[in-house]
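Usage example:
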Amino acid sequence: MLLEFKNIKKSYGSMTVLEIENISIDKGECIGLVGNNGAGKTTAFSLMLDLIKATEGQVLTKGYDVSVDETWKKYTSAFIDETFLIDFLTPNEYFDFVGGLNQWSKADTNEFLQQFEEFFSGEILGARKYIRDLSKGNQKKVGIIAALIGNPEIVVLDEPFASLDPTSQIRLKKIITDRLDQHTFLISSHDLTHVAEVSSRIIILEKGLVVLDNQKTEETVARMTEYFAV
Amino acid sequence: MRNPAFTQNLATTIMMAFLGLYFGVSFIVLGAAAPHAITEMLPEANGPLYFGRYFLYFIIYTFLMRLIFQNFGFKDLNQYILQNIPKSTLLHFILTKSAFNWINVMSALGIIAYLISANYAEGYNMNLLNHGLVLFGLIYASNYKAFLFNKQLSINRLATGIIIIVVILINYLDYKGYIPLGDVLEYFYAFLVTNIGTALLPVIGVIGSYFLTYKTLLQIAYLEDAKPSEESISSVNIGSGLFAKFGKAGKMMEMELKLILRNKRAKNMLYIVPLIGVYPLIIHGQGDQMSSMGWMMFVAIFCTGGYALTYGQLLLSWNSGHFDLLQTKMTSIKEIFQAKYFLQCILIFCQTLPMILWGFYKTEYFYLMPAMMFYNLGVVLFLYMLSASYNSKRVDTNKGAAMNYEGFSMALFLIIIPIMAIPMLFYYGANTYDQPLLGVFLIALIGLVGFVFHDKLINISVALFKKNRYKIGAAFRNK
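Running the assembly step on the lines above writes:
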């Protein structure tokens, strides 16, 4: 088992925002985490990345508690929001920085990035602009691709389709599906169609509780669509 | 639940209020005391004109400060430019708001106190209206001129640097008596207060520079102007070979250098470096009482660690905007601390080398500078690391440095006590046995021990950080 949420609970004062009895994720799965605003998706990711403290329970990767052992950082990568970008660097400098942290040379990083040239639409690589001056969509592209640098086993992406134009959304879906043999993805999204297309397993969160956790089948997708229908 | 940042912000607000009160009272006292002090110290001088001479010096120095530190509020413009508010209203708002910045408010308090005091002082038969118009006019003309200069010079940092060097040079020549700048300023002030017509000239200057600034801003107030041109991207390749030797920590050090050079507040602090460099000259110019070994020791601490320490105070806060990335990407938290420590060491070492040259001015500096460098490397840096590991606050690196206390916490103020107390304890302890050099030696020795065992000390800081990491992370995310 690669990843496990074990009796995890996160509360702020008397308000519980997330309560998961157990979720186990195996290598090679692509988890689609869906839910309305305030469902607890980002909280779940933040707990997994040890950015916030669990009130109860543990998140384990390869059997180790992420809040105790830092080994998970070697094989886990994430893009949650702009706090994962360094806004005063140009995209190339940022990729080089992240590549360097993964002990990739500049040449390794550049070679890796070439395969995403189409996704970047010629607006990112070599751009003489700081990340803070890029559009929201291009910032998101930079963050997503940087999360793939180093070929991490686990990739966590929070709302990766938001802010992207339709063409880029399609291209991103292709990038994810093409790389399913290399990474275990955890992807949150409000967009049911995108999640249904890329995920192998769908988890629905509602007000901090898991209300559905099934492998993706036509029936699961139908239940998911029905659940969110007004 | 109450936001944890609330209590922190409250503490900062209380501190800012105290600072504002302190400076406000100081300016009022200075203004009120000026007529009496001038009469007592220089009974033969023309008091009002003598005041005017130094007021014009004040205008020159504050103009430089405005160019370097003043927040001109262009970011405010970007926030509102898409709202349903006429552009003219926005620009008048920014320009009017600047009239209440801290330099202007403090100066206004001082001027009012001076005018009231001068009205009752002996031998000050001056036209209060003329003097008031000139003094206020000069302050506000300088305020709006700085706007124009800032907008034009922002494309050319070199020009700003040249202006600062020229002003310092002229002042130095004036101080040495080679040029009569003071007399020229006094003559100019005397001309301005001659009659109501000349006294209105600075007021006309205020109105003129206000509308000129307004018209200039009106032409360039588009969102795209707020973004840098491609040419303004500064490339930092200096030392990348050197940093490569430090592995991941080196990558982070290289990024940190870019942070310093590309963000306003950190870069503003760089301008302080030349001022720190001439600190011994300023101190020893005050007379023999400032030339004791004890004073020189503190000068050496400041000279060898000035930039690293002012920048280093906010150790982790500088990275608050991308701290989640560092926490999840750096294989261990220790690497972040190592990178910070090594970069500070390099900065301290680079700053110390030229400072040793002060030994030709006062021989003691030949050994005091290296000794205090070790104190900075082995003690001060770790006290800042401990403080940052206990409590750090968010910093918006794009904001200017003037009266900007973002990132400062009570822990940071309290840590200054041991930084100052440790050398005092050892130096004055040894001095009571007539062994001041032994005191200096012991301080350097403690620093050297700290430097040698830096890895152990970093481990202590990391352990403390791990206990507080969730609290610090939440503070960094809290905008």
